Amino acid sequence: MSNTPLIGITGKRRTGADLKGSLKVMSDLSLDVYWVDYSQGILAAGGLPVFLPLGVDPSLYVERLDGLLMSGGADIQPELYGSEPAPETYKPEPIRDEFETALLDAVIDLELPVAGICRGLQMINVYSGGNLIQDVPRHAVRDKPPATEVHTVKIMEGSLLEKLYGPSREVNSLHHQSIGDIGENLVITARSEDGGVEGIEHQSLPIVAVQWHPEMMTSRDTDPLFNWLVTEAKK
Ligand SMILES: [Mn+2]
Predict the structure, then answer these.
(1) d(C-alpha 133, C-alpha 163), whole Å
(2) CA distances from 212 to 114, 178, 225 (A)
(3) Residue 10 and residue 76 in contact, taking contact as beta carbons nearer than 8 Å
(4) Quick one: 77 exposed, middle or buried, by C-beta within 10 A (0-12, 13-18, 19+)?
(5) What is the set of active-site residues?
(6) Residue 1 lies in a domain
């Protein structure tokens, strides 16, 4: 068990009031939460998932981690990529933006492998100096189960994502924002038919991210992104 790679998973902050059935006297208390499909994907790939609570100095975690999964969630504060908040942008979670920025500082320092999903992809891009399109309603499919494959992504020849997924893939789409300008040292390696960015990777570091949600698809337990992360984390 000792050589099972330890994979950190990021999550979001909520309050007791957000949790159905919680005691009313606990309404104002905080919860850090994540969707179990992320940890199940890591487990199925042979990794040991560990949730990273917010509000801790991330540099204290990274020495013990072998890899990082940056999960989906709230919109990133537009100020972090030099934009005014558009009316369509949802309420941000500044505590999470701050935590994940420091976390990326720390994991990049150690060259740990990073997989990003949805907000994770967007966070990696914003961290790298890129920006976001604040609303892409066509990709925010909210009236179908999350596993539903609703559009195709075309994957760039010779990219890491192509090695993982092949030249194209049918994917789900639950995001309402997407990448605008790409950040430094990142390459766009997957796009939807309308040109939207669906996958990115780093030119020299083990960082890869997708805009869709592999953890919510029926292929979760054999998904190449989770397998890549756990395999890289063993190195
Ligand atoms: Mn999409």
Answers:
(1) 28
(2) 16, 11, 11
(3) no
(4) middle
(5) 118, 213, 215
(6) no
Distance in angstroms (rounded) separating the CA atoms of residues 106 and 211: 23
Chain-centre distance for alpha carbon 15: 22
Q: How distant, in Å, are the alpha carbons of 120, 139, 199 from that of 194?
A: 21, 10, 14
pLDDT in tens, 150-179: 999 999 999 999 999 999 999 999 999 999
Q: How far is the CA of 172 from the centre of ligand 1 (A)?
A: 7
Angle, helices 224-233 vs 36-44, to 10°: value is 70
**Alpha helices (H) along 70-217:** 94-110, 119-127, 160-165
Global pTM value: 0.97
Owning domain of residue 214: 6-233
CA of 18 to the centre of ligand 1 (A): 27
- Report how far ligand 1's centroid is from the alpha carbon of 192 (Å): 7
* Residue 54 CA to ligand 1 centre (angstroms): 28
CATH number at residue 190: 3.40.50.880
What's the total number of domains in the chain? Answer: 1
Q: What is the whole-number distance in angstroms between the Cα of residue 188 and the centre of ligand 1?
A: 14
Condensed to tens digits (0 to 9), the pLDDT of residues 11-57 reads 999 999 999 999 999 999 999 999 999 999 999 999 999 999 999 99
